[in-house]
Each structure stands twice: as structure tokens, then as C-alpha cells.
Structure to design on (369 residues):
């Protein structure tokens, strides 16, 4: 059984054994947006743009082409992963899909992906409505299914197209987000080192990152698409993603270092024991600050992925694993600490030894020829 925390502890702790991470793939959006060029076109002064780009780590981002959804991106990643591993889809025992930008309110993306891949009718399919912490939450669920739920092989797909939810006139939010879909294969095994998880949430702060309209509480309507202009001149409406940057920043620095330290304590590691701290790629300043607070040097804390792809929500940790550590993970085991954090407000931290594993190169979808 998983090792759970005692009542009253700060976080939910969980340790899962006899599982391994067998493969990773990420498909990004195919359209490239440039922070400086877009800002100049919007009338922002070059010096201001360069200062923000240096501090926050905003350079380029990849967004989905028209008509491409998170389901499409994850399907492409899943097909490429299964092909690379030589695995037939019929051998998948369950599929978990993590997204906040599903194709429909119902059915869920997990069921749609199940049908597209032609999975067995005995393979359950379910969805987690999570954002930037979602890959860690999904990994824990996949590990539990393999260790205790009767599954030998679980496909975890996590991805979003958040660029569709931002307003191009909102310079505070729109330049942050890229689009991507990931596929992670988790397998039951008798010889893998334990996976440790720490999960938490602060629902009192849920309004800090929100799309107010478009759900059952406030259905989409003509009135919900009426734009307003804030004090900084940013345009947005109630169907756009809205974020209180100061509150999110404070939440991150308040909760994430404690979660990282808690999961390392659970694993019996210090920062010097781990090979890398892979954080959700929110922005360079947050990543460097959290890494420093947790005792990790910069060379153990990948932080330039956001400059190439943007904030990819639930796909950002697998993208960072491939981009920064893919070559090493293909040939040798690495002690990885990871943490996702964001909408909810929620956070999830992981510590475990992963590798060698199959790493499929990053590729835009549709593929650029």
C-alpha cells in the first residue's frame, strides 16, 4: 500500500513502489511568437521589453496552429512515443488525460483519446482538470494504478492550449503562454526505486488564476465577450484567462520551497543528492528564486525552457525533462526532484530516480517540413 501522511501534517505525502517512468514525448505548438516583436507591434518601448525579457525569461513561445487542440497535441505525442517504444496501443491498461482546455465539456479528452488510439475496452479513461501542477498529480495517479490498481502500463497525457484563453490585448498575460501536449508511459516493475509525492492546495486563493465565464456558473454570452481596459491599458473580457500576478508570485514563494523540501525529506535526499530540480516553467525569476531557496545551484535547475516555448502549463515539466536532461535520461538513472504549481491554487512535488528511459525528441505539431 502507498505510504500516506499522518493526520495533521502540512502536505499529503505518498510513496509508491514497483513502478517506473518508461518513456516521454512532447509535441509543441507549431506557430512561433516573439515577445520583443509582438511588444513593439503593440507600441511597447524596446528598453522596457528587453528588461522584462531578461528578468522573466520571455523570448519566444510556441502556440497551436488554428484548429489544433490539446487533444491533437497529446495524440501526436502519444503516437510518437508508442511508435518509438514499439508498443501496441492494445497493451495500454489505462489512460489519464490532464488538461484545462478540453475539446468539449463532455465527453472528456481521455475518452476521445482512447477512441483515437484504439485502446482496449477494458482500459479505463479518465480526466484530471488540473493546470500547471497537473503532470505531478497525473503521475501519482498513474503510479497508483500500476502499483495497486491492476494496471501494468498506463498512458499519462498532459497538455493545454492556454494561448486560446488569453486576450492579445492583455500584455500582462498573453505573452506568457505556449501550447504543448505530453505523453508519459508509466509501467509496473519489480525493481524500480520508490516514487515520492507531496500534494497540496489552497482553494481560498483559487480566484488568483481564473477564466470567469464560459462554465455553468456564468455561461458564455455576448455580454461575457465585452472587453474592459485595466489601469495598465490591458484589454480583456470575462472569457479570457485572468491572473493576479502578485498573488500568484507570493503563493509560489510561500508554498513551493516547502513542498520541494518536504518531498526531498521524504526521499531522504538533500539538494546535493539530487541530479536536478525540474520546476514548472513559469518564468525564469520564479524558477531561479525557488531553486536558490531550496539549495540548488543554477546548473541543476533548468530554467531556459520557458524562453523557447513559453509557459506550457501541465506539459512544461515533461518538456523540461526532455530538453534539459533527455540525453542523460536515455542512458542512465537520474535522481529528479520536480514540482508543478499554479491554478487552483495547487501544487505537487515529486522525488524519484528515473531512467534509463525512452525520450522522444521535441517536435512541433503539425510537423514543420
Amino acid at each position: 500500500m502507498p505510504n500516506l501522511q499522518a493526520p495533521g501534517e502540512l502536505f499529503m505525502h505518498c510513496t509508491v513502489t514497483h513502478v517506473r517512468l518508461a518513456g516521454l514525448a512532447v509535441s509543441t505548438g507549431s506557430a512561433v511568437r516573439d515577445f520583443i516583436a509582438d511588444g513593439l507591434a503593440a507600441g511597447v518601448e524596446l528598453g522596457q521589453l528587453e528588461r522584462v525579457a531578461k528578468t522573466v525569461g520571455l523570448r519566444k513561445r510556441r502556440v497551436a496552429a488554428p484548429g489544433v487542440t490539446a487533444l491533437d497535441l497529446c495524440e501526436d505525442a502519444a503516437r510518437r512515443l508508442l511508435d518509438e517504444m514499439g508498443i501496441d496501443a492494445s497493451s495500454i491498461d489505462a489512460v489519464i488525460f490532464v488538461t484545462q482546455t478540453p475539446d468539449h465539456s463532455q465527453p472528456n479528452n481521455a475518452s476521445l483519446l482512447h477512441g483515437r488510439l484504439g485502446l482496449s475496452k477494458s482500459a479505463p479513461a479518465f480526466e484530471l482538470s488540473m493546470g500547471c501542477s497537473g503532470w505531478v498529480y497525473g503521475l501519482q495517479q498513474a503510479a497508483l494504478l500500476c502499483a495497486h490498481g491492476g494496471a501494468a502500463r498506463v498512458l499519462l497525457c498532459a497538455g493545454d492550449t492556454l494561448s486560446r484563453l488569453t486576450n492579445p490585448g492583455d500584455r500582462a498575460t498573453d505573452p506568457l503562454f505556449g501550447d504543448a501536449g505530453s505523453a508519459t508511459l508509466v509501467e509496473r516493475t519489480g525493481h524500480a526505486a520508490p516514487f515520492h509525492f507531496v500534494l497540496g492546495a489552497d482553494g481560498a486563493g483559487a480566484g488568483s488564476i481564473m477564466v470567469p465565464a464560459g462554465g455553468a456558473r456564468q455561461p458564455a454570452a455576448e455580454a461575457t465577450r465585452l472587453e474592459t481596459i485595466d489601469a495598465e491599458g490591458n484589454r480583456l473580457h470575462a472569457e479570457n484567462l485572468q491572473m493576479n500576478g502578485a498573488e500568484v508570485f507570493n503563493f509560489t514563494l510561500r508554498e513551493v520551497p516547502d513542498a520541494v523540501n518536504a518531498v526531498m525529506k521524504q526521499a531522504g535526499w538533500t539538494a546535493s543528492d539530487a541530479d536536478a530540480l525540474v520546476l514548472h516553467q513559469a518564468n525564469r525569476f520564479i524558477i531561479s528564486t525557488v531553486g536558490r531557496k531550496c539549495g540548488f545551484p543554477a546548473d541543476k535547475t533548468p530554467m531556459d525552457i520557458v524562453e523557447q516555448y513559453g509557459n506550457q502549463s501541465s506539459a512544461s515539466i515533461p518538456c523540461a525533462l526532455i530538453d534539459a536532461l533527455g540525453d542523460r535520461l536515455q542512458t542512465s538513472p537520474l535522481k529528479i526532484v520536480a514540482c508543478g504549481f499554479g491554478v487552483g491554487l495547487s501544487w505537487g512535488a515529486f522525488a524519484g530516480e528515473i531512467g534509463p528511459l525512452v525520450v522522444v525528441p521535441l517536435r512541433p505539431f503539425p510537423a514543420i517540413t
